[in-house]
Amino acid sequence: MSRRLFVAAAGTLLVNGPAWANARALVVFRDENCECCGAWVEHMKAAGFEADVRIDPLMNRRKTELGVPPALRSCHTAQIGGYVLEGHVPAAEVKRLLETRPQASGLAVPRMPVGSPGMEAPGAEPDRYDVVLFSGERTSVFATYLGDQKQVR
User: Fold this and answer.
1) Can you name the residues that pair with 86 across neighbouring β-strands?
2) Is the pTM value of this prediction over 0.90?
3) Which of 3, 11, 78, 98 has its CA 20 to 30 A from that of 85?
């Protein structure tokens, strides 16, 4: 291997290595009084993610620091692989985010839709909701769900 190729490969490992190594490690920030946050964490763990849950009494400040636009906010906020996750984002979409690595700040499920991961309510009609890819104030629909079922566009 040439020196130039070795230096380029080493630089790639230094930049990308930690994201790959911790691709399943979530840091979750939540209010201590919110029960649905714990249910979402259990959904993520069942999908193979690890979670470090941290109680944060200043959640709005945390969301602002992490760049979550006010219109996209929900109850809990997480970080994984260099991205921000806001609200009840399905694990399948987090996996797709980490596999495709789009240039964005993260994913959000605004508000708390009935039937989204952690917001299951047996007997209640599930909400239709979007999983939003965001970067600053720019947004696009990453996926659409009806409860726990992904909808084909």
Assistant:
1) 77, 108
2) no
3) 11
